[in-house]
Every structure is written in structure tokens, then in C-alpha cells.
Amino acid sequence: MTEAVSDPGMQQVRGADKTARHLRKRQASERRFRAYGLFAVAMAVFFLAMLFVSIVSKGYSAFLQTEIQLQVDLDATKLDPNGSRNLNDLARADWGGLVKETLRGMFPEVTNRRDKRALYKIVSTGAAFELREMVLADPDLIGQRVTIWVPAADDVDMFTKGFIDRDVDESQRRISDKQIAWIDQLAAAGAIERHFNTRFFADGDSREPELAGIWGAVVGSFYTLVITLLLAFPVGVMASVYLEEFAPKNRWTEIIEVNINNLAAVPSIVYGLLGLAVFLNFFGLPRSAPLVGGMVLALMTLPTIIIAGRAALKAVPPSIREAALGMGASRVQVVTHHVLPLAMPGILTGTIIGMAQALGETAPLLMIGMVAFIADIPGGPTDAATVLPVQIFLWADSPERAFVERTSAAILVLLAFLITMNLLAVVLRKRFERRW
Which of 231, 387, 391, 431 could disulfide-link to 221, CB 3.0 to 4.6 Å? Predict the structure, then answer.
């Protein structure tokens, strides 16, 4: 009986073919995985670019403001009949009536009461305030004829920027044909122009879009972040040093570590509820104040700083500690003189990222009342204030078209701050990072 004998060379060829097929299959799988990854990154970049383009296209126009030139006669008999030049008396003068009189002089053909009201609406209500401030700063202007550029009303601003189409039926737009004719006359005379909107960066909030600014929110954000940093940074660093360098490894420290990791994932609105219940209702701290907002954000940021601090301390090689201990240093000296300085760049990076997260938070601040309309610039941490994200939230809920562009412009400013803080974190990490 004869048995078939396999050729060893044939078996080797078949094994090589099988290995080659398996290798090609694995390489194809890796290529597909890389393609999926590149596709995901491309889609993320595409949608991010679309979002950024949308925000910029809606917000860049807010950096320009339409203004109207007025030739105002500062009649002393109307503004200062006593000739005292008393600032209190001047502040109470009828500046709004003076602006209306100037407009009537520019368009003497307007005699109908309804048309006069429409004429007055092409100029912002803030025109009287700016005229008053100019005269109060220099009372010697009284009796002279002065030239002043005042903000146009928000509808006029939207019209000159092309957001209101003149070809649309008059009943379908917020500006009348007569107002468009007056705007055309002003443009022909060179009395209406678009200038850089300094009010947007220098003033506080306002009910009138053309007068609304972000400076009050920026100052409020500054005070809030200062309080957050002063509270969260030292506590976070001390907690991370203790847990990593001094705490015994037992069940209690494990429970603390787990809870710190869990607190980092708690929704931010929970911290707002905590601040409402403890800081406002129990301790009676002032509502809508950067002091309370900073305390709430400090609680929210603390886990992030502790986790980043522990990671930075853990990255310091044990040989540093052993060498210092071998030279006779105490445990405290080892940590304060050697370990902590080497870990500080990583701790600062985590702190900056945590502060950037706090800068963009809205929900916890809404719970403690920082959603209120605040027109004044806060003078300290205990004054009523708002912050940039909350200011954006308020403007986004306003019906006027002019607030849409200001909302997008404020988002651009907020993004600029966030990008700057994240770039600072990257620079610190690259500049001071050590590889062991």
C-alpha cells in the first residue's frame, strides 16, 4: 500500500503565500484605519472652519459703526442761561432737544409731526449723551458751533451695512422710504460714514445695540478669574503635593483620589447650584458679584489643577528625591526645593487650561445671578457684574438684528482670549518641559 508523501518545498511555498496574504490583509486594514482617521480629522477641520467662517462673517461688521455728522449750535441761552458754567446745571440741560433741533435744521422740509419722529430715529439716543459729555469736558464750547460725529440708530447702521435691502417693500423692513432718502442725502453730503467702533470695546452693556459694548463684561471676567486663580491655584497645588508626596497609600486616600477624578467630570451647573445654596443663601454674599462667581469657578477648576499637579509631580524622576534625601534634606525640603520647581511648568500648564475652561463657563454663573443686565463698569469684585460668556448669552436672546453681529463679535473676542491662554499653556510646556 502506497502513501502520498508531501513535498517539503511545496509546504514552504504555501506557508509563505499564506503569510504574504495575511501581511497584505493587515497592511490594508492599517491603511483603512489611517484613512478613517484622516477623514475624521478632515471633517473636524472642515466643520470648525465652517463655524469660524460663519462667526466671522456675522461679527466682523460690528467692529465698524455708522456715524452721522452734526453741526450743533451750543446756544448759551438754552444750555446755560445764568452763565455760571455750573456742571450740574449743564448736565441737566435739554441735550436731546438740542440734537432734535439740529436735525430739523439739516432737513427744514420736514414739518409733519410723524415725519419728525421718523427723522429723530435715524440718530441714536446716545447722541445727546455724547454731546453732553463733550461739553462737560470743555464748558468753553458753549456759544460756539461744534462738529460732532454721533452714532446712527441700529436700523440705519444695518441699512448702510447692507443687512436691510432697500428694494424690499417698505412694510417688510424696519426703515421707511423717507428715512432712506434722508440717509442718501447725508451720504451725498459726506455727513454719514462708518468708523471704527471704539464703543464696542470701551463701554458697558446697553439696551441700544449701537451703544452696547463688552468692556463691562471683560472687567467682570477679569475680576472673576483673579478670584478663581487666587483660590484654586494654592489649594490645588497643596492638595496635589500632599496626595502625591506625603499622603499614606491607604483606603482613605484612594477614596479621595476617586472623588477628585469624579468631581472633574461633574456638570458645571451643579457647581452653580452649590454656589447658590451655600454662598448666596447660607452665607449671604452679594448676588451677581465676581467674588461669588470666582468662588464657584474655583470649586469647578480645583479638580483639574489637582489632577494636572499630581501628573506633573509624578513625572519627576525618583532619583531627584533620592539624591536630595541622600544629601540630608528633609522631606519638605526635597519637595519645596527640588520636586515642586521641576513640576511647576506642568502645574502651570494645567492651571492655565483650567482657567481657560473657567473663562468660557456660563451655566454656573447663571445660577448665581450674573445674568442680570449690568450697564455700569464694575469697580471691584463685590460690585454687580457679568462676564463675557453671559454677555454673549444675553445678546443672543435679543431680537434686534444689530445684536446678532455684536454677539458674533463678542464670540470672536472670547475665542481670542481662549486661544491666547491655550497658546500660553503650550509655550510654557514647550519652554520648560524636561525629558528624563
Answer: 387
Main-chain dihedrals φ then ψ at residue 120, nearest 5 degrees: -65, -25
Q: How far apart are CA 25 and CA 216, in angstroms?
A: 62
Beta bridge partners of 72: 146
User: For 126-175, what is each residue's pLDDT tens digit?
Assistant: 999 999 999 999 988 988 999 999 999 999 999 999 999 998 998 888 89
Cell of 82: 445764568
**Cβ-proximal residues to 136 (8 Å cutoff; 6+ apart), any chain:** 87, 90, 91
> What is the model's pTM?
0.87
Residues paired with residue 151 on neighbouring β-strands, in sequence order: 67
CATH superfamily name and code, 215-432: MetI-like (1.10.3720.10)
Q: Where do the domains of the chain lie?
A: 64-196, 215-432
Cα–Cα distance, 139 to 66 (Å, whole number): 27
Q: What are 338's strand-pairing partners?
A: none
List Cβ neighbours of 194 (8 Å cut-off, separation of 6 or more). Answer: 64, 65, 66, 67, 160, 161
d(CA 294, CA 373): 19
| Tally of CB atoms within 10 A around 195 | 11
- Cα 315 from chain centroid (whole Å): 33
The greatest distance separating any two alpha carbons of the chain, rounded to the nearest whole angstrom, comes to 139
Candidates 160, 364, 155; CA nearest to 277 is 364
Distance CA 268, CA 273 (A): 9
Q: Which of 217, 209, 216, 203 is nearest to 130 (CA)?
A: 203
DSSP 302-323: HHHHHHHHHHHHHTS-HHHHHH
Evaluate whether 263 touches 303 at the Cβ level (below 8 Å): yes
Rounded CA separation 310/347 (Å)? 8
Amino acid at position 203, single letter = D
* Residue 199 neighbours by CB under 8 Å, 6+ apart: 65, 151, 210, 211, 212, 213
Cβ neighbours of 183 (radius 10 Å): 21
Name the DSSP class of 334: H
Model confidence pLDDT, tens digit, residues 207-231: 999 999 999 999 999 999 999 999 9
Neighbours of 69 (CB within 10 A): 15
C-alpha cell at 178: 423717507
Cβ burial of 357 (10 Å; 0-12, 13-18, 19+) is middle
**In the numeric block, which cell numbers belong to residue 13?**
511555498
Angle 284-287-292 from CA coordinates, rounded to 5°: 80
Coil/strand/helix, residue 69: strand
